[in-house]
Amino acid sequence: MTSSQTPPPSATDRSRGVSAHTQILLGMATGGVAGLLARKLLPATPDGTANTTLEFMARNIAEPLGQIFLRLIFMVVVPLVFAALALGVAQIGDLRRLGRLGLRTLGFTVLLSSLSVVIGLGLVNSLRPGMRLTTQKREDLKRRYATGDIKAVSQAKQAKTAKDTLLDIIPRNPLQEMVGAIDGSSPGGGMLAVMFFALAVGVAITTRPDETRALVATLDGVYHVAMAVIGFAMRLAPIGIAGLVFSVTALLGVEILSTLAYYMGTVILGLCLHMFGVYSACIAVFARMSPRTFFAGIWEAILTAFSTSSSSASLPTALRVAEKGLGIRRDIASFVLTVGSTANQNGTALYEGITVLFLAQVFGVELTIAQQLQVVLMSILAGIGTAGVPGGSLPLVVIVMQSVGVPGEGIGIILGVDRLLDMCRTTVNVAGDITIAACVDRAEKNA
Ligand code: ASP
User: Fold this and answer.
1) Ligand 1 atom having least distance to the Cα of 341
2) Residues 57-96: pLDDT tens digits?
3) Of ligand 1's atoms, which has the minimum distance to the CA of residue 426?
4) If you take atom 1 of ligand 1, which residue's CA is the nearest one?
5) What lines the ligand 1 site, CB under 6 Å?
6) Does the chain have fewer CB atoms within 10 Å around its N or its C terminus?
7) Domain of 315?
8) Are 220 and 5 in contact (CB under 8 A)?
């Protein structure tokens, strides 16, 4: 990257004397408390349908506030991903070093994703949350939620073969891929295809350094503009996040929460074990850093991931904390975190494993060891292919379910609590990207 790439002044750093993460935390707490209070004051009807005034407030006031914040970030994610990755690669310069970085990143991704799915399957097999439901409750759930027209199921029906999925990583028309990268409507590989294009541009730049100076300066400008816009958006973060959290807490039925408490507990326990156990060990062993320093340094990224449920929306914050909070070199952070925001989703892989087996238990489908292994493999791959947006993994969960004979419509059973779990798994996804960046940075120093 060029020398002009000093970190952009962050709107979140110390505005109004209160640190960014304190403001975000305050926004989250205010939204959560207000949501719970509103739910108490405007209770749901006995059959569990939300109160209409409460629903109006959540959908027409709180959610739009959250959406303004999210959209301001999403608006610059594609240019940011493209510029950060192309510049990162261009700055790495040496193709051999790039190959080594790529292999290391891939190695850590496969290792951490495999461990996460193994933790998930171990827990779901030992705690058996699907069996904790009475037969009556199970039948109720199936009747009430596992029917109807569910978006994730129709999306899963359009699923491509493995060969096409791999081929689609190479875009036929990168601009078309960029257009649909955020909402999943691109004809090919979406964000992965955009990344491939950025990689190709970055590599090409390294072969013609003199002729491409102007292009590098332009990409540098795009990177800074994107970061500046995100700085504006982050000024709104406390309000936007309060809105997002309000709508989750106000609309989530207490009844469904208690019914699915075992399932949610299993997912959250698995995510905590992975985040604080596996990541801490990885950070201590491979990055030679104290896990306490690590988590203290990435706090702001954790809060952003938790409240936005989006790895893509958390990317700018992740880039900043990696560099400023942990001192990871910018070229390495740009490469690992940008690729990781789509391709490394440990929390999602763990969640997918647990969800598929939980629903298999609810539907009374016995899975053989071979089928469980299939779930492991497919969950790892699905983690790699998941878009870093809220609910991005749902169509892939349906595909994994169907592949082992669990009805796809069954996803309806867990949709009510998905947003909450999405917040938790996205946190693990983003922390995992930064873990890998720290480990790769350390390994590169020793190389
Ligand atoms: N929301 C997740 C992320 O952005 C993806 C998912 O699991 O749905 O990382």
Assistant:
1) 9
2) 888 999 899 999 989 988 998 999 899 889 888 888 778 8
3) 9
4) 390
5) 309-311, 345, 348, 386, 388-393, 422, 425-426, 429
6) C
7) 14-446
8) yes
Distance 157 CA to ligand 1 centre (A): 20
Ligand 1: nearest atom to the Cα of 430: 9
pTM over 0.90: no
- Indicate whether 420 belongs to any domain: yes
Closest of 299, 211, 249, 263 to residue 62, by C-alpha: 249
Indicate the number of domains in the chain. 1
Show Cβ contacts of residue 81 under 8 Å, excluding neighbours closer than 6 positions.
Answer: 191, 194, 195, 198, 312, 315, 338, 341
Q: Is residue 183 part of a domain?
A: yes
The verdict on residue 6 lying in a domain is no
Q: What is the mean pLDDT of residues 104-123?
A: 93
Atom of ligand 1 nearest to the CA of 392: 8
Closest CA to 178 of 301, 314, 85: 85
Task: State how far the alpha carbon of 130 is from the alpha carbons of 45, 107, 127, 262, 315, in Å.
Answer: 27, 33, 9, 8, 35
Give the residue carrying structure tokens 């750093």: 13
Q: What is the DSSP letter of 323?
A: I
Query: Domain of 266: which CATH number?
Result: 1.10.3860.10
Q: Is residue 4 part of a domain?
A: no
Residue of 312, 280, 241, 291 lying closest to 69 (CA atoms): 241
d(CA 14, CA 23): 10
